[in-house]
Amino acid sequence: MVFSLxxxxxxCSSLLRNRAIIYTSNGxxxxxxxxxxxxxxxxxxxxxxxxxxxxxxxxxxDLNTIEGVYPSKPSLSSNLSSSGKGSKDEPVFVAGNEGLxxxxxxxxxxxxxxxxxxxxxxxxxxxxxxxxxxxxxxxVIRLPFGKLNGLSEAHGATMTVNPTTAYNMLDSxxxxxxxxxxxxxxxxxAVGKLVIQIAKIRGLKTINFVRSRDNLSELVKExxxxxxxxxxxxxxxxxxxxxxKVKEWTGGxxxxxxxxxxGGEPAAAIAKLLGSNAHxxxxxxxxxxxxxxxTSLFIFKNLTSHGFWQTRWSKENSRHKKAALxxxxxxxxxxxxxxxxxxxxxxxxxxxxxxxATQKVRETLRRxxxxxxxxxxxxxxxxxxx
Amino acid sequence: MVFSLxxxxxxCSSLLRNRAIIYTSNGxxxxxxxxxxxxxxxxxxxxxxxxxxxxxxxxxxDLNTIEGVYPSKPSLSSNLSSSGKGSKDEPVFVAGNEGLxxxxxxxxxxxxxxxxxxxxxxxxxxxxxxxxxxxxxxxVIRLPFGKLNGLSEAHGATMTVNPTTAYNMLDSxxxxxxxxxxxxxxxxxAVGKLVIQIAKIRGLKTINFVRSRDNLSELVKExxxxxxxxxxxxxxxxxxxxxxKVKEWTGGxxxxxxxxxxGGEPAAAIAKLLGSNAHxxxxxxxxxxxxxxxTSLFIFKNLTSHGFWQTRWSKENSRHKKAALxxxxxxxxxxxxxxxxxxxxxxxxxxxxxxxATQKVRETLRRxxxxxxxxxxxxxxxxxxx
Lengths: 386, 386
Description:
The structure is a homodimer. By secondary structure, chain A is α/β, with parallel strands linked by helices. Chain A folds into two domains: about 10-160 and about 340-385, Quinone Oxidoreductase, Chain A, domain 1 (Alpha-Beta Complex), CATH 3.90.180.10; about 160-310, 3-Layer(aba) Sandwich (Rossmann fold). The first copy, chain A, contains 13 helices and 18 strands. In chain A, strands 3, 5, 6, 7, 8, 16 and 17 form a seven-stranded mixed β-sheet that branches. In chain A, helix 4 crosses helix 5 (about 190-200). The first copy, chain A, is elongated, with a radius of gyration of 23 Å. Chains A, B: Its EC number is 1.3.1.104.
């Protein structure tokens, strides 16, 4: 027989200090954010768990949240330190909304979650840009597949915002059957690419519009490889011949769902390609222009215009339904049917001082804010030696 | 015993010739329309009735229909004459969509409709600008109240387009309870005034916006007399203080229904006053500007934008439901709870020649098209001596 040490001895969570990317008041990311180091977490109180973040992405909405212009606000954290920033006297906001974490300790009364379980966040704005946090059992959703089953860390870390948005927009507004067509603009956005992939899984055909660019043929190839039925530019969209082309492709079948993350003319133009009783679902406004549509589309063609916000969906749906959705997405990911986004990890190393780490974080977020990073950036925060 | 002649002898419908306002191809109302005189109707075939129009309004959509730019198209009539215009060889479009008629003769197999019954049109674009027409029993809905019960001809003639639109917009998109608030622009439109009155009957509060004008205080008094809770101008609407005022009036209760017949800024501004999970329903675009709304209202406040078109509602709902609605509206009208629109009757006299009558019709429609008639104009066409 092999002699095995009690697992508890190998847990080092209590031996290492933690780090978090925090802010105390809203402002530009290059000024508001800093990194603090704080003491190891105490054992979790009843019905809570201590989790250690593996990877946590920078989403565009995180920047708006830190700037204070996002409708979903984090609560102040006062349990990081016994004194100074993050303490009861000086509570802080821990940044980050999405992330993959591993359970490192469970409190009394917790069932269904054990040490080593991978979890994603259910509660919005938990503050995922940190090493370890103590959270309620209902703040997380257990992943059915762990790393052993081939789900990558990047998959797990980017599961609760974009893939859920893509899935639910295809599912919530209209009953689509195999062979039905949908149309979208901003098709090369993170969500747009997931829409293409999930539509393909469901047997739906997609007409995808993107901005014209130098390397257009590469992008078209990439989207087609993901499963896009048609990929065109906004120049094609505004051309009079588009109506005839679409009719030819669909065999005259009405398109009844359009997904919009751009606004302005690229939104109006896809709405005009829809048939009667169709739904236009907006989840972004990258052009920063309003959604401007002819009233006649609403009156005579019975267009309905909706918005989709995963945060609201999450609030309005049961944990059971959310866990089932996460399960479905995780399965598709392990089957290779849903790609993880192109990404780069930004590691905050153990040996980085708080000052160095703060500069690194601010500089990265500045580049993201300026749109200079084509890939999804994921934070990997290392614990700090005690 | 009193000797009574068989009623049939007193029917003079077969002794007088008919007239209709017709067009043979789409064009401007001042050129396309003319009046023709045609032979008396033969007795109605089985399951049809002969009706005689009492009054028929000019609605804005009639002008668009004649111009050929309205989505609801009439069919050609080929049963007016045995030769010439309106015959099988030269079918014509009879203009007019709405109207009040009296049954003058019933075919075999018709039940529930007798001579003297007042009916309104169920089928769109029947061609109501005429003296007598032969129609199917399902083309009409019987009015439960006749003239003896105090329903005026003007009420009956203007029942199936505007009052139904107002009623259904308050009924179809959201469950409103007594004390709830709604908001509308173009509040002095025909539909807007009906919305005010029906809201009052239902115990709903209304915030009503109108264009500023010289006789504003008169208009405000008129709308308040109809039951408007608040009447303001678009200048008030664009003023920053409006948010606070509305909150004070509603006691902070969310407004969840906005009705829009203007588009452009007056539509966006009322949408911004709505609470979460609200519905913006558009039934017109008097400003001719598109419906332009911030995407954030859709995403973060879950605004849904719909259109309402009574023609579609009518197509999608059962005859039973439509008859019940007409019954409810007629009852409110006889109770004095719903006013007939301000109107003037335009009589085409028996002694007017076709040429004179044609000039009269064209001239009236020109004035309506130019917005020079403040009142609803209702056609009263007299039969012509045989």
